[in-house]
Amino acid sequence: MVYGSQRGEQGWGISLYIQDGNLTEPDFEGRIRSIEGIESALFASDAPAAIWVPPGVASQALKEIGGLKGIADKGKYPVYEEEGRFRIRTNLLTMDDESFREYCRSIGADPDWFYDTPVPRTIVVNRVQDDIHSNPRNQVWIPFLQLTPGDSLEGEENIYLEDSGEFTFTTAVGFVTEIMPDIGDRYGNYQLCRFCPEANTPQGMGFNRDFLSQYEMYCFLEYLYSCRGIL
Q1: Of 7, 73, 104, 129, most Cβ neighbours within 10 A?
Q2: What is the spatial distance between Cα 44 and Cα 92, in angstroms, rounded to a whole number?
Q3: Which pTM does this prediction carry?
């Protein structure tokens, strides 16, 4: 289904998503890219989860607005304090290999660093919208956490307090940036977005089937005004 569209200076951007727990096939990706008028196509799949972090990992900018505890105490965001540490929502997005390698080049990361590793490595987009102080006319962005390459992040499928899953997993920080790939979407509510290639899919990490029912495939297309009958 079409998720949204946006007109830019050179053409339109369209994003759509399918929620079925599956990745796109290379043949499908190739057929989309071969459509006349397509300038670029990015395929990403999103698995929402949570990670545990200590309070001291908050960035200085985050500390200045109350830190993780200040956000958790508001009760409006998926940030929860439990036994002296915080559970925050993270979105683990896998990208098709062509798009992932291009993204790595654009931010100065070595794409080969993310393949064939014993612990899956991710690119961390360490920037969030400060939803407490933002409004439709003025979006405030701040660094989120203090993370460095090599840091280990312990994750689980439980995002909210009422969740009761048992699956846990570990990933490593491979690269830290403030630049999001152009996926035609915005993640608010103090969520940490992380990206990896298809080789490091949640399926490969052992995510259970019930968890993967939440897994969404996004397709973001850029095409010229002259392109007709795209979808």
Answers
A1: 104
A2: 10
A3: 0.82
